[in-house]
Amino acid sequence: MSDTKQIRIFMTGVGGQGTLTATTLLAKTVLSQGLPVTSGEIHGMAQRGGVVESTVLIGCKSPKIGHGEADILIGFEPMETMRALPYLKCDGLVLSSTEFMPPLSVAMGKQECPTIDDIKKAVAGCTNKISFMPSQTIGLKAGAVQAGNIAMLAALCASGELPFGPEALEATIKANLPEKIQAVNLKALELGVAALNA
């Protein structure tokens, strides 16, 4: 297994978005491919609106991601994408939602919220491997706003950055999610792949 390419994935969002579900599904997909994986929650606040950060590391000995070490940054909320940029490796891949779910501090007017253009500029200053998508809108189109996270995972699997494609994620969804939510998530998967290629 020592020849497994090391891939460090940093995921960030806000509570109530399903960031940890997405982390678990991605880790299970990696495992299903016979690859060594470590996943963890760095900083999680279960209540809605709190920042949630998690990691999925493929073929890595250390379970941590330091600044400048993430090969891939997935931001389920654009402000959190911007906040997590220090973790990104130079020229790493950024997949980010364009739709805000402002944290409490912004909702209460204690903090300014950057515009999506500010965020796109900040990301472009770090890498040119960037994909933005309206994940909540995609999730709603699939049937549930949280399914937007699955759409983003699907886009990641279709990006060519991982040693497997969207069909591996599809098999994991079928094997691990309750039947009643499978259809929504499989639709989100299809829409996520389409959004990446749009």
CATH architecture: 3-Layer(aba) Sandwich
Biggest sheet, in brief? 6 strands, mixed
The tally of helices reads 8
Strand order of the largest sheet: 2-3-1-4-5-6
Whole-number total of structural domains: 1
- The share of residues in extended strands comes to 15-25%
- Calculate the terminal CA-CA distance, rounded to whole Å: 35 Å
Radius of gyration: 16 Å
Provide the succession of SSEs: EHEEEHEHHEHHHH
Estimated structural class: alpha/beta
Provide the CATH top-level class: Alpha Beta
Question: Kindly state the mean pLDDT as a whole number?
Answer: 91
User: Quick one: CATH superfamily?
Assistant: Pyruvate-ferredoxin oxidoreductase, PFOR, domain III
The outline comes out as globular
Count of strand segments: 6
Q: Topology of this protein?
A:
Layout: E1 7-14, H1 19-32, E2 37-43, E3 51-58, E4 70-75, H2 78-84, E5 88-97, H3 104-107, H4 116-124, E6 129-133, H5 135-142, H6 148-158, H7 166-176, H8 179-196
Helix pairs in contact: 1-7, 2-4, 5-6, 5-8, 6-7, 6-8, 7-8
Sum up the structure in keywords.
198 residues, alpha/beta, Pyruvate-ferredoxin Oxidoreductase, domain 3, six-stranded mixed β-sheet, 8 helices, 22% strand
